[in-house]
Specification:
Strand content: 15-25%
Helix content: 25-40%
Number of strands: 20
Number of domains: 2
CATH architecture of the largest domain: 3-Layer(bba) Sandwich
Structural class: alpha/beta
């Protein structure tokens, strides 16, 4: 079963996306439970300070377990990074929406005594317009007519996923992060695991959580001693990671609907949407977002500079006519995730085989655990909430 098939099944049954295994997952999510008390008192190394790595550290801190997060980049966040330099609200350059009910936020925090003030807003399906361009003409209709009543994505209001993690998760883990330290080797052949960085520096731990994008493993940037099990190696090798590209364009006027789709907007080859990035924000700026993965993303990635900008504007002029995009253009920014040295792409496709995804998430020898949007139980993947839930699962398994 692919993720698309699973989501469709849950939609037919009228339930929200779960995380546990089998069809029972549609009504039960045991990841809402608190992490159990631990008998483990060793040290844990977490590789990667993205949402999964931060969540894992946060949960270990709740248990009083010693840990260290080792991050290749000079900052935390991974693929939920944002910028505040383009407009008067944070622009999410990576993970942007909440794809499940916002009860996921207290679930991640894992502490009922914490009051969460993060604001979110869903789309007005009966009133917000969606556009569909079939190559010759633009069709405008209400969102529910294009996406159905199960379109439940939420927008952060005046904040982002990164803001949420910085506020509620990072404080417990930030002092434990070592930056600018790409890990290249993990030796788990003895009771004490040795983790080695590109500069030759080594670290020791009793257990390790690998929380890096799966493309890093696919490209062989981290070696394992002994080698990972054959089925794990095959899953890593065969998994299809989409390319990823986002752009944000500022215009003098708002001439576009909440969403704009195309015939190739959702397919096994990738995704392509334009959307109102300023939706629900307290701003007077008109910001149109472009979100693309897979083959559609590569069209933009193969261009740069003025040629890339002009391609995007021409695409919008073709859809809306009268050179409306070109004549109202102010400025834009882009994020090419393939060019990020410790991401190398976006995320595994929505059409991936769930059994392969499940193998990606399996731990090795009670020593090496995996956390991130790709390392799940095989029912849901490729989103921020699955990264956080996978971290909780890894910690739960580790502390026993």
């Amino acid at each position: 079963m692919t993720r698309k098939e699973f989501i469709k099944l849950c939609g037919i049954l009228g339930i929200s996306l779960p995380f546990t295994s089998a069809i029972q997952a549609c009504s039960n999510d045991d990841n809402n439970n608190m992490v159990n008390s631990s008998n483990f008192d060793g040290k844990v190394i977490i590789i990667g300070a993205g949402p999964a790595g931060m969540t894992a550290g946060y949960l270990l801190a709740q248990q009083g377990i010693d840990f260290q997060i080792i991050e290749a980049l000079p900052t935390y966040g991974g693929r939920i990074k944002h910028t505040r330099n383009f407009t008067d609200f944070p622009i999410s350059l990576g993970g942007e929406w909440i794809h499940v009910p916002n009860s996921i936020l207290p679930e991640i925090v894992n502490d009922s005594s914490v009051s969460i003030s993060t604001q979110t807003q869903g789309y007005d399906l009966q009133n917000d317009l969606s556009g569909y361009f079939n190559g010759t003409s633009l069709e405008l209709n209400k969102l529910d007519n294009h996406f159905g009543n199960d379109f439940a994505d939420l927008k952060f209001v005046g904040s982002s996923w990164l803001d949420f993690f910085e506020t509620y998760v990072l404080p417990s883990a930030q002092s434990k992060i070592t930056y600018n330290m790409p890990i290249t080797a993990i030796d788990y052949s003895t009771d004490e695991i040795t983790v080695t960085a590109s500069n030759g520096q080594s670290f020791k731990a009793d257990k390790v959580i690998v929380a890096v994008p799966v493309k890093i493993l696919q490209n062989g940037m981290i070696s394992f001693t002994p080698n990972l099990p054959t089925n794990k190696q095959q899953a890593i090798s065969n998994i299809n990671v989409w390319s990823g590209f986002k752009a944000f364009i500022k215009f003098t006027t708002k001439f576009y609907p909440a969403y704009l789709s195309f015939p190739n907007s959702e397919s096994a080859q990738g995704q392509l949407h334009y959307y109102d990035a300023a939706y629900a924000q307290n701003t007077s700026d008109n910001i149109l977002g472009l979100f693309s993965t897979g083959q559609p993303a590569e069209v933009y990635q193969n261009l740069s500079g003025d040629a890339q900008r002009d391609y995007i504007l021409n695409e919008l002029d073709t859809v809306f006519g009268n050179n409306v995009a070109s004549s109202n253009y102010i400025e834009h920014i882009v994020q090419n995730w393939n060019a990020e040295p410790y991401a190398n792409g976006a995320y595994i496709t929505s059409y991936e085989d769930s059994e392969q995804v499940e193998i990606l998430g399996q731990s090795i020898s009670n020593k090496i655990y995996f956390a991130g949007d790709a390392y799940t139980t095989g029912n849901d993947w490729s989103s921020v909430h699955t990264a956080a839930r996978s971290a909780k699962r890894a910690v739960q398994e580790m502390v026993g």
